[in-house]
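task queued by scheduler; priority normal; single chain, no ligands, no partner chains; default sampling; output format set to structure tokens
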Amino acid sequence: MVGKSLNIIYGRKPVENLIKSKNRKIKRIFLLKNFSDNNIITLINRKEIKTELVTVEELNRLTSNRNHQGIVAEVEGEFKYTELDELLQKVENKDNSTLVILDGIEDPVNFGSIIRTSSCFSVDGIIISKNRQVQVTSTVSKVATGAEEYVPICRVTNLNQTIATLKKNGFWIVTTDGWAKTLYTDVDYNGKIAVIIGSEGKGASKLVASNSDFVVKIPISGPITSLNASIACAIVLAQITNYRLKK
């Protein structure tokens, strides 16, 4: 009988990326008895990870009936966040650098999607707050398909102090807001850029927006007047990538 663990990663791609990344130690992997993904099985055998064959009922219980796809990994300890100083040292000598700052994202699906998108666009790191913000959970990891193993995630106590630190280190701060006058396409994205994505309902806080160098909007012409936070993030990151490629 499998006991429920708080430190789990579930789903084929998240567990595969977990095994490949080497960031977290895997205690054991629970596999459905007829699990047939030979690539993952080969990885497990190569790393000599302890494996237990279990029933679908046991996996359902372990994941609270989420879409585990027949595989669950139990990891040691909590997710390890990156220190801000470490992230800044990593990008110190880069001509172009992109960070994503989340101001109050509470939906794990949005957070997971933003992590996955950030990985696709080679974002150097994501910064979140310890308060009013969903943390890295097993659900977030599932939606991110394990991309949290590749994108450094920093957790800070004060976003506005962090913004001030980023400015001192050469970053321009760009906040998205539907009521802004400047279009997101009218910004020079060369250099070090930190993009702030606000909460699903309220957007970025007034203080965060006032501390930004640019407040931009994505033009919307349809009857629905707001974008999902993860979609807005993807649009801006795509613009940054396209802008730099053209330059």
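post-processing summary
- The longest strand covers residues 26-32.
- Residues 178 and 222 are 13 Å apart (CA to CA).
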